[in-house]
Amino acid sequence: MSDTAPLHADVLLVHGEAASAREAYREQGEATPGDPHLLAGRLLAHTALHPGHRRLLARPERFAAAVEGEGPEVWGRAAQRLAAPETPA
Asked: Where are the alpha helices (DSSP H) in the chain?
């Protein structure tokens, strides 16, 4: 496969299969931790399933830092917390 060929997860996402795409990005991410393409795809798939979390797309580096080294069980909780509207101080 060439470097420009779409990943299986990308194809799933384009075809509207967000849940399957998110799982495929997770699996591929385990083999290639820290890959920004996989993080972006996973966040796109996640926000397709949870539109209220679209705020994550504005600052994906915050999300990446929050879940670095964590397993998939942490991703959902981190996404929910980071996507919540900020409260004024």
From this structure: 8-14, 18-31, 36-49, 60-67, 72-83
Reported as a single tens digit per residue, the pLDDT across 24-81 is: 998 888 888 888 889 899 999 999 999 988 888 888 888 888 888 777 778 778 888 8
CA distance 22 to 10: 9
Q: Tokens for 77? A: 């909780």
- What is the residue whose two structure tokens read 């996640």? 46
Read off the pTM: 0.79
| 22 φ/ψ sector (left φ>0, alpha ψ -120 to 50, else beta) | alpha
